[in-house]
Amino acid sequence: LGKNSATGEIIGILKDNPQIGYEIKVWLKGGPKDPEIKNLPSLVKKNGINLTVIPPHFKHNIKLTGVLYELLRSGVEIRDLPGFYELVFRKIPLLDLTETWFLENQIGQKKFYDDLKRGLSFLAALTLGIILLPLAFIIAILIKATSAGPVIYRQARVGRHNKTFTLYKFRTMVKDAEKGGARWAEINDSRVTPIGHLLRYTHLDELPQLWNILDGNLSFVGPRPERPEFVVFLKEKIPYYEIRHLLTPGLTGWAQINYRYGASPEDAYEKLQYDIYYLKNRSLVLDLAIILKTIKSLFVNHE
Questions:
Q1: In 3-state terms, what secondary structure has residue 172?
Q2: One digit per residue, pLDDT tens: the chain, 303 residues?
Q3: DSSP character for 88?
């Protein structure tokens, strides 16, 4: 029911991928004003439909809710568009969200799990830090021996509740790589040093971030922390962008394993849809799945 970009995306994906298990029987493009709305129960029965997907605002139309209740009473499953989109794509459609959606889903309200996750992250970071300390010393020596500049690169990032913190990484770029101002890193960036390419490929440049986990500014899993300069820009361009700051950011996340490396507002928009999905559905099982998939990606060829 209804017509917008999220609906069109769903229709296209389901038509091209019947293995997902859904078949489009009827699409009422006219929305609430479509004359077929009043005949919806008969359309559903005639076409053997067992699931109806509706735009969220339909739930606030008294006449439509009466029709939908009649369908529900007859055994037809009713889902709103964001919920069905989430089921199919494992992300949340920004275009169809309202402040009411965030309230209804109690986004961010999982204090017990967040506290448990913090404790587990601290213990894991401490253990890994001790085990990997000799490797960190070797990397530091190689960086110092092959290029001028500090071993550790410090960069301001925005964390939980919009708090700015210092992120630590092994330096992978030439000295003064951003003397002209902040800019997104690029694929095959000419500023990256030879040893930097290896560190980025293996993600060993991120070892110092174990300290960020120990001090509580970072977790193993969560939305990737962005730079303050980019946050100011992105929150003006993308709706609900700052909602991702309800969580402690992470080394890896749902957006990182489901979407390519991003370096544009369009990429940030797409990633935010995955970040909101994680915000809504975070759990120990999901976190473990993200960590395992991240580890798996380290052993496959990077395109």
A1: coil
A2: 555 667 778 888 888 888 888 988 888 876 666 677 777 888 888 999 999 988 877 777 777 888 888 889 889 999 988 889 998 899 998 887 889 889 988 888 899 999 999 999 999 999 999 999 999 999 999 999 988 889 999 999 999 999 999 999 999 988 765 665 655 565 566 788 888 888 988 889 999 999 999 999 999 999 999 999 999 999 999 999 999 999 999 999 999 999 977 778 899 999 999 999 999 999 999 999 999 999 888 766 444
A3: H
Which segments within 114-193 are labelled E, that is strand? 152-158, 164-170
What is the C-alpha separation between 266 and 281, in angstroms, rounded? 23
Identify the burial level of 222 via C-beta atoms within 10 angstroms of its C-beta, where 0-12 means exposed, 13-18 middle and 19 or more buried: buried
292/294 Cα distance (integer angstroms): 5
Query: How large is the angle between the packed helices 228-237 and 265-281, nearest 10 degrees?
Result: 90
Task: Count the alpha carbons within 13 Å of 173 in the hemisphere toward its beta carbon.
Answer: 18
Which tokens hold the place of 82?
A: 């964001």
Report how far residue 91's alpha carbon sits from residue 26's, in angstroms, rounded to the nearest whole number: 24
**Tokens found for residue 259:** 């979407």
CA 173 to chain centre: 27
116-126 burial code (b ≥16 CB/10 A, e <16): ebeeebeeebe
